[in-house]
Amino acid sequence: ALPLAQQQHSVALIEAARIGYGASGRNGGQVIYGYAAEMSNLASMIGLKNAQTLWQWSREAVTLIEQQIQTYQISCDWQRGYAHAAIRPRQLRALTEWVKEAAEHYHFHDYEVWNSNQLQQQLASERYTGAIFDHQAGHLHPLNYLLGLAREAARAGALLFEHSPMLSLETWQHGYRITTPNGNIIAKNLVIAVNAFTRSLRQAPIKALEAKILPVSTYMIATQPLGERAQQLIKNNMAVCDTRFVLDYYRLSADKRLLFGGKVNYSGREPGRQQLIQSMRRDMLKVFPQLADAEIDYA
Questions:
Q1: What region holds the FAD dependent oxidoreductase domain (predicted)?
Q2: Sign of the CA dihedral 285, 290, 295, 299?
Q3: What does the DSSP assignment read for 197-222?
């Protein structure tokens, strides 16, 4: 909506709940390069040249986010620094090989390889054998970042409608008609940006996307504010995740909480809050056993 409005297009955005209700506002806040698939796997599927293009796009995305924060003066606690941590020695060897591959094939030379001692100088955990560290990637408050973009989109002329679910969609003359509880919108072009919520929309043009989208849940907990203890946990205030397929990911918030995420769920059946807290707390204590006395305020 923001770039379209800035180019003088007439833009209306409808949101069934509130802006940022889904993963856009409730993600882990880590802003990092790359994709879920390893770059070597992508290169084998689509060729090295196309993989290099995808890698460059991911780098540009991180740069764009930082530029937007600065240009629009978005207060979202942007912090540089990210560590990809290995639990087992073979995982650290794989990370080291990726550093070489990144330099050779993707012209990326910004990684530092840390052994366990170097990592523990910044991270108060004995769980890891080492990590690779990236100075340019980092973390932010995702909802505040998104609300900052929404503010700028509205300032540029975009119309933003919250609590306005789409009830029906039909072709109309040379475009579309979208029906909401509060009125209709006639549009020449339509951008479907519902991601994991595609299955909740049964309209024919959107239903065709169902087979291409797999909704996945992941979970987070937030401790009570830790005060000076937070500085001891992650001394350089970096974001961290590990190398497992079902990984842990975490960072500190501006008010000195540990935000700890992990697990995946493909079923669509979500756990209860207390069950979630107990399960996530066990995972957190594997990384930071010194937080056994910390209360969990949010899950």
A1: 1-295
A2: negative
A3: GGGG---HHHHTTGGG----EEEEEE
**How far is it, in rounded angstroms, from Cα 177 to Cα 186?**
5
Q: Which CATH architecture fits 30-140+215-298?
A: 2-Layer Sandwich (3.30)
Check: CB of residue 157 under 8 Å from CB of residue 51: no
Is 0.85 topped by the overall pTM? yes
Query: Which pLDDT tens digit goes with each residue over 246-255?
Result: 999 999 999 9
**Ordered DSSP codes for 96-117:** HHHHHHHHHHH----EEEEEHH
Compute the average pLDDT of residues 54-80. 98
CATH number of the domain at 2-19+144-202, please? 3.50.50.60
- State the Cα–Cα distance between residues 225 and 255, nearest whole angstrom: 6
Structural domain spans, the chain: 2-19+144-202, 30-140+215-298
Cβ contact 113:125 at 8 Å? no
Give how far the C-alpha of residue 136 lies from the chain's centroid of Cα atoms, to the nearest Å. Answer: 16
Cβ partners under 8 Å of residue 193, min gap 6: none
The DSSP element (H or E) to which 168 belongs, if any, is: strand 168-172
Give the Cα separation of 70 and 72 in Å (integer).
6
Give CA 196 to chain center in angstroms.
Answer: 14
